[in-house]
Amino acid sequence: MEKKKILIIEDSKKTSVILKDVLALEGYEALVVNDGVSGIAAARREKPDLILLDLLLPKVSGFDVCAAIKKDDLTRHIPVLVISTMYTPENVEKVKICGALNFMKKPYKLEELLAEIKKILK
Asked: Which of 39, 40, 65, 84 could bond 55 through an S-S bridge, CB–CB 3.0 to 4.6 Å?
């Protein structure tokens, strides 16, 4: 069975390395990019099964990345899970409007994140 591919768009090197390692241990293929422009390009190129998206990114905000991914015919079908410290009712509404499936607040428990990923990818 082919591994599910997860694209991590996260500017924190520490967070992205931990996430990539944990996802690899869980049997996923994880790819990391550290800014919004690279995230949009990687989504088009790699066509992942899921995108984990931070909102605070250099170059292009996570909101704009989400909107760009959801407007593009090549990537609009890819589920987006937002993971950010910017958890407010307004931001939850904004990410839903842009097409994200869910918004998880940082810091999060790895077990909860993995459960959400499994639910999305089943």
From this structure: 84
Q: Which two structure tokens, joined as six digits, stand for 57?
A: 């990114």
Q: What is the pLDDT of residues 4-28, one digit of tens each?
A: 999 999 999 999 999 999 999 999 9
Whether the Cβ atoms of residue 96 and residue 67 lie closer than 8 Å to each other: no
Q: How many CB atoms lie within 10 A of CB 40?
A: 22
Task: Write out the two tokens for 94.
Answer: 């904004």
What number is the average pLDDT over the span 68-80? 98
CA pair distance 80, 99, nearest whole angstrom? 8
Cα 28 → chain centroid? 14
Beta bridge partners of 81: 52, 102
Domains of the chain: 5-121 (3.40.50.2300)
